[in-house]
Amino acid sequence: MKAVILCAGGGIRMRPLTLTKPKTLLEVSGKPILEHIFDSLPDEIGEVVLVVGYFKEQIMAYCGREFKGRKIHYAFQDGEEYGTWVGLLAAKQFLGDNKFLVLVGDDIIDRDSIKNCLKHDFAVLAKEHPEPKKFGVIVSDNNRKILKFIEKPEVPPSNLVNTGMNVLDSRIFNYPPSKHANGEFYLVDAVSQLMRDYDVFVERAHFWFPIGTPEDLTRADEYFKILTGKV
């Protein structure tokens, strides 16, 4: 099975740390975020497609053609269009028809939660968050079937937010999303369309650490140092 890791972004909110390197190579507890993500991948994942753009040469030099025992492919997101959908579209050539994972390159998630998603044909990993209005909120039924996504609602109907980790297959490419008001194309909009024809299920993450700002990076570093006994 293959995993797609979206690593092309410029890390604007992480500046000045990303002025000289991509965000996914910033270190948490002594190793890059990207390496933490590789360590969380289940054994079922034998190949990884890294979607690269900003400072792509650094990522390619770090991971090479095999990393952590997994074959690496590179897809390049260098065009005029942006967003998670554009990143996945760049990886399409490597994916075939089989089920695959999609992860963002600046979030750390635990392995068991990712593995739980693999039992579904289509799944989204979510996590409770104390400030759900800052994220995309997921509404599901009692069978964990997703009913809808609500992006950054003023009055969230739940505190269950989308982590951006998905289990999908080639059918997702039949549902290209429209351009968002900010000019980007989002994978979640494609998944919303997919849900009209197929059931998409939500699994809850045990651990999810999104890293978007220097403050997030500091908190993550402190947390993992405590977790690994380095303090």
Task: Please specify the SSE layout and strand pairing.
Blueprint: E1 2-7, E2 27-28, E3 31-32, H1 33-40, E4 47-52, H2 56-63, E5 66-67, E6 70-76, H3 84-91, E7 100-104, E8 107-109, H4 111-117, E9 123-128, E10 136-140, E11 146-151, E12 160-168, H5 187-194, E13 201-204, E14 208-210, H6 214-227
* CATH fold-level assignment: Spore Coat Polysaccharide Biosynthesis Protein SpsA, Chain A
Please tell me how large the radius of gyration is: 17 Å
Count of the domains: 1
Strand content: 25-35%
CATH architecture: Alpha-Beta Complex
| Number of strand elements | 14
- What is the average of the pLDDT values? 90
Helix percent reads 10-25%
Largest sheet: 8 strands, mixed
CATH class: Alpha Beta
Structure description:
- The protein has one domain: Spore Coat Polysaccharide Biosynthesis Protein SpsA, Chain A (Alpha-Beta Complex).
- The longest helix has 14 residues, at about 215-225.
- The protein is globular, with a radius of gyration of 17 Å.
- It is α/β, with parallel strands linked by helices and about 230 residues long.
- The termini are far apart.
- Strand 2 (about 25-30) and strand 3 (about 30) form a beta hairpin.
- The strands form 4 sheets. It has an 8-stranded mixed sheet with strand order 5-6-4-1-7-12-9-13, sandwiched between helices. A two-stranded antiparallel sheet has the order 2-3. A two-stranded antiparallel sheet has the order 8-14.
- The chain has helices at about 35-40, 55-65, 85-90, 110-115, 185-195, 215-225, and strands at about 1-5, 25-30, 30, 45-50, 65, 70-75, 100-105, 105-110, 125-130, 135-140, 145-150, 160-170, 200-205, 210.
